[in-house]
Each structure stands twice: as structure tokens, then as C-alpha cells.
Amino acid sequence: MAMLLAGPILTGCEGEDGGEAVTRDLRPATSTGTGAIQRQAPSPRLGLNLPPVYDWGLTPMFVDLMDQARRFGSPVAPWDETALLGEDGWPVGDFGIFLATRQEGTSHFPGTYTVRFRGRAEVTLVASRASLGIPNYDSVENITVIDVHVPEDGNQLALAFTETGAGIKDLRVIRPGYDAADPPRFTREFLDHIAPFPTVRLMDWLRTNNNPVARWNLRTTPETKHYASPKGVPWEHVIDLAIVAGKDLWINVPALADDDYVLQLATLLKRQLPATTRIYVEYSNEVWNAQFAQYEQNRSLAITEVRDDPLSPLDHDAVGDENVWGIRRIAQRGKQISELFRATFGEAAMMHRVRPVFATQVVNPYLTSIALEYIDEVFGPPGRYFYAVAGAPYFNLGSRQTEEGLDTDDVLAAMATSIETLPHVNRLEENIALARQYGLPFLAYEGGSDTFGPGSLAAKKAASLHPRMETLCRRYLDNWYDSGGGLFMWFHAGAGRWDTPYGTWELTTDLALDDAPKLRCLHAVLDQLPSR
Description:
By secondary structure, the chain is of the alpha/beta class. The protein contains eleven helices and 18 strands. The strands form four sheets. The protein has an eight-stranded parallel sheet. Strands 5, 7, 8, 9 and 11 form a five-stranded antiparallel sheet that branches. Strands 4-10-6 form a three-stranded antiparallel sheet, with no helix packed on it.
């Protein structure tokens, strides 16, 4: 393996994304705004991953429940997703729709929803604790409107549409408090929740893991009726969020996306996003992680490339190792995506407005060294193609992660130990030094408190809500920044139900609980970080 080459001389000043700024960093200062109270703009060094879109999610992101609903089903079992659809995606004849479930006890779910659609139908509730108002049909506009009243103890909402004739279209189910004729896309609660954080990562929104889309014409579009699908939320809605909420975006390009897909995406982003929006561009998500389909997809593509072309750069040194080819291809595809964005946005935008990121396994810097050496030896300095290297330095319970019988103090103590050993376990110093050798900062594409897995679920939940969690969170982020880490994308925003083995990832259990420990921590860290 070739020796790593030293990068540019470091200036010693703190860069916008943390660590020491490299000589190529010519990014503009962040505006502090205007008005009687001059407050420093939120630091761009802390952002959020957005939660996935599901009917059981506890984060009310979209005003129209159709955006989170399952695919159309039968009237008797709306959750079976078996409705016959026409070419326009709307059901042909009678159908059911499963809109929300497991919402008991949440502040946002009770209230009066408005069901609005084009056409006429008999609308009934299915397995839902709610009541229907009297339908109002406008024969001139051919529009039917019905109120649905969800009580305080409501937990799910499913509807059946019968006697539809040729079928109904343009169905909306609008949350309480919004104009059903002209609703906004995003709820006030969601926008308020993410408001302090300048950057959002869209990995889960885009359903990056195991995403099947290879061609642009097969992607989700705004005309798609449901977004809780393997294809994810439309790019147009991602752009809408950036504009409405004023966010920089961290996007994930599907693992199978061809060059035309990438060019079409880059063109759409350039055309519709404000010129001030920064775009972090990542190839898929954790392509090194064998639990996801993209791992084997990338590995197979690497093997095929070398076998089809004996002169493939993936085996330029005749290493003959399929695993090395796979790691090299992750970097190579990221480099190709970077070049496609460069062709669209222009040279001046690269590493400033457009910020391609090479994401790696934080506990295994060897993978990073393989990838960056490869780019450097075959294509030139990695800094031409990548803005930064990134990893996911979570803290957890260590060896007690799935242990039964723990109490709240046990969980907090285990997590405190994890934080103290974080720089060593996650090899932060080695990762950051390796990135800097190539003149790149080291970012966190994900990170936060990891309680995933069975065992002591009540204690894990109690610990996540305990005031000491705020202190642990602060110490954790202090360790990250003190080590030289840059932009940190917390995983993840929103509210969750923390009584399952699937972790307490979210910032709170209800968006109305805006003083939860992790939220307090992140707000405090935002206020203390420099804006550059």
C-alpha cells in the first residue's frame, strides 16, 4: 500500500465545519441578520437527520396524511395495499386507505381532519376510533368534503371509499388547523422543530437504504400518491423544504442511480434551489455495511467492472482483492458523482456550494485509507472531488447494550463510559488525521445516542428522558469538537415511541415536549458554537 501524502499546510484557524481550516477554504461568512436584536446566526456545525416517512411515525411532517399513507388497499382491509389502480395512480373503483397508526397519546393527532376529493363516494371509518361529519358535495366543482373527528384517545385512522363509480381522484386528508383547499406541505410543528438547525440530511426521507431506483424516470415524483415507499420522498419536496425552511441539504444519491439520473438531479437542484443553499452530496449510505443491499450491489459492480475490463483502474496495481475493489469503487463512484455535479454547477460551486462527501466506517480507518489512496494515485488529489470525509461516531451502552435488568442509573453510567472512550473506540484522532493528510475536514453524517436492541427497554427510555442525558449529550459533542470534528448531523430529528427494541434515536417523544434533554443539549450547543 502506498504511503499517504501530506495535504495542504493548515492555517490553525477554526473552519466553518470544524477542525482546522485548510488553505483552499474560501467560504463566505454567515450573515447575522438584521433587526433590533443582533443575534449570531445558528452555527452551521450542527445539523439533523430527518426521520423516515411512515404512517406510524410520531413526527407530523406533512399536512396531508396522504403523504405518509400506505398504498391504496381494499375497502374492508385498507392496509392490504391491493387496490386496482389506473394509469394515473388513482384507484379504479372502490378502495381503502390506511393513513396513520400507533398515534395514541400524541399531542398532534386528536382534532378535526378534512377529507377532500374530486367525485362522490360513501366514506366510512375502518378500525378507527373517530367519527364522521355530514358530507358536503359541490356539484359545480365536483368536490366532496367530509370532516373526521379524532378524539383524545384516538390511535389510528383508516378510511373506506365505496360507491365511487368510475373512481375518485385528488384525495386529501388534511390535519386540523389547515385550509383543505390550499394547504401548505409541511406542518408548523415540524418546521418549528427543525428551525434552529441549518442543515438537514435526507437519508431516511429518500429511503436511501435498499433503494431500487436506477433511472430518473422511475423515481418518485410529486404525482406519486404515497411517499412511504422504497423509493422515498420526491426530490421536489426536498427542494420545497429547503426553500420553505431555509435549509442546507445533505443528500444521498441512490446506489444504483446511473449517470443520467445524477445529471438530472443536479440540474433540478441547480434550477430550483436558492443560490445560497449548500448541498452536501453523499453516494448512497454506508455502502461498506453488509446489512444493506447497496453493499452487495456496489461489490458486484466492482467485480464486474474488473472482470469485463482488465485495465480497470480498480485493479490498477493488480491487487486482485475483490473486497479492495469494492471499497475503491465506493470512492470512485463518489468521485464520478462529484464530476457530474461539477459539469452542472460549474467549477466555482465545487467545495463551496456543492460539497461531495466520502462517508466511511468510523471504527475502521483502514477503509478510508484504501479509498483515499486509490483516488490520489489514480485520479489526483481527493480534495478536487471530495469536500470532506465523514463517519458515524455514536455513543451507546457498550457491552451492556442488550442486557436485561438494568435500571436508569445503569444505562446512564454505561453511556457515560461510552462517551469517555469514544475518541478511542471511534478512532477519532486517527480518522481526523487521515482526512487532514488530504486537506479534508472530518464530519459526522450521523451520530447521537444509540440504545438500539432488546433489553432493559424501560430503563433506556427513562435514561433518554433523564436530565443527566443532557449532560451526557453535551460531553459527547464537546468530545467531538475538541477532537477536531466538524459538521455533526445528529440522528435523528423528531419524536418517537421509546418502548420498543428499535432505539430512542429521536430528540423527544412528542414535538410538544420541546424541553426534552437531548433537545436542550442541541439547542445549547448551537448557541455556544461559533457561527463559522
